Amino acid sequence: MAWVSWDDMTQTKSNGGLGFRDFQSFNNAYLAKLSWRLLNNPNSLLAQTLFGKYCKDEEFLQCPGNYSESHGWRGILIGRDLLLENMGWLVGDGKAIKAWPDPWLSLTNQVRPMGPALEWCSYILVSDLLDPDTREWNRDLIRLIFPSLETTILSMKPSRLGASDKLKWLHTKDGEFSTKTGYSTALEARSKDSDRPRPSVNWNRGVWNLKTAPKVQHVIWKALKGALPVGEKLLARQVPIDPLCKRCGKLESINHLLFHCEFAEKVWKQAPFLQYLDQRGLLYLETDWMGLVELTCLRPVGIVATQLAPWLICSLWTSRNNMIFNNKIVTIEEVISRAISSAKEWKNAQGQDEPKKPSQRKIEDVPHYDTVLQTDAAWTETTGTTGLGWAIKTARGTQRFSNSTTFVTSPLMAESLAMREAIKKSKELGIRSLRCESDSSQLIKALSSSFEPLEIYGIISDIKIEASSFDVISFCWIPRERNVDGDSLAKAALRHVTTDSFS
Ligand SMILES: [Zn+2]
Q1: 234-244: per-residue pLDDT in tens?
Q2: Which of 107, 189, 208, 499 would be a feasible disulfide site paired with 101, CB 3.0-4.6 Å?
Q3: Residue 482 near residue 373, CB atoms below 8 Å
Q4: How far is the CA of 103 from the centre of ligand 1 (A)?
Q5: What is the pLDDT of residue 58?
Q6: Ligand 1: distance of its center to the CA of 250 in Å?
Q7: What separation in Å is there between the alpha carbon of 249 and the centre of ligand 1?
């Protein structure tokens, strides 16, 4: 279905002669394109059909691959995985973004906070870092959790009006996937793969997108990072503790505890997997985890669509702790049945809360307005401090306002912040019809076309949401000479921080 046709291939060949590796990469880029379309048009007939068949219980981005599924669907998942490794989040209201594992700190690379996550706040969302009333960053909390990221985070401007977070492809300017950049990315990934003898863990599929409880993801993550405090690790950290396995007396490494100890080996052998687990060669977390994640359960167990392996790891870990700290001996059967019952319990507790997308009414250009709004910003590059100024002009006269803000990274961001404040104030004043003027052609272009600069995604979303509540609104560019009011207000605000004032 998604595979490249012979025509495509011969055409590419004649364009430069591609080897098999190139062909594979080209193919993967095509598959990624298809996945991108599915991701962005979940209501299309194709998406509805495929998701209805293959992602009944899970989101497309999370659903695990399965050996029994069709060739075409597995192809789409290959494309999806290429996307997963190369997408980042644009912060809207922050409710869809997990603050620790998700990449949300850069518009060009997958950048996440450096772990390990602090235990008490491992599962926070980006929205939890916002003040619930103002929807501005909670600076104290950010200093507490991500002290080294304070400037980075404060320089991002989230949506105040609840625009959804958005995934972007990292290799294009507009954040939209293109086959060309997909191809070069796939090619790069493949050449990296061939340098690496051992398969590595796909963090999204192997940890963060596991269909399992966050606490289980956390244990898996720690295990894969070598951060579970087992005997061997504590010994290395010179913690005075007996580093040997309490069950068999061998050195307790992570792999020993989870796979190589006779006890663990039996747990894996007796677990009700559909596939026969071949343990003639020992299992290693680093190399075998992605395979274990794929294992499905026997139907009567009742958790066919849930992954059991992560729960087994977690159950092995807790039973070990129970033995060491509570002197409780747990049997092989208990480890397995605990894993299954927790998996079931978790599965049953899953509700479906879909984040709502704010409706964005089309902004229309209508010739007559009661009110004209002129906005401007004065920005200092060195400090990021910015003065915002705007004048609201009606037949009765002019009202002047100003404000100031910090952590602004570009003139465009400054101009858009001025516009957001200005429109908010206009709405508060009960104005229903508004012509908004700015001398920033970039901002006006962003507001009157579908092209949205990514760095101001949250701000632009807010302006569009706010705009949709006016009867009539338009945005238009004016030359700097005509924006005297806005300009002088912004400059004055920058000179000394002022609050709203009337004239
Ligand atoms: Zn042992």
Answers
A1: 888 878 888 89
A2: 208
A3: no
A4: 37
A5: 77
A6: 6
A7: 6
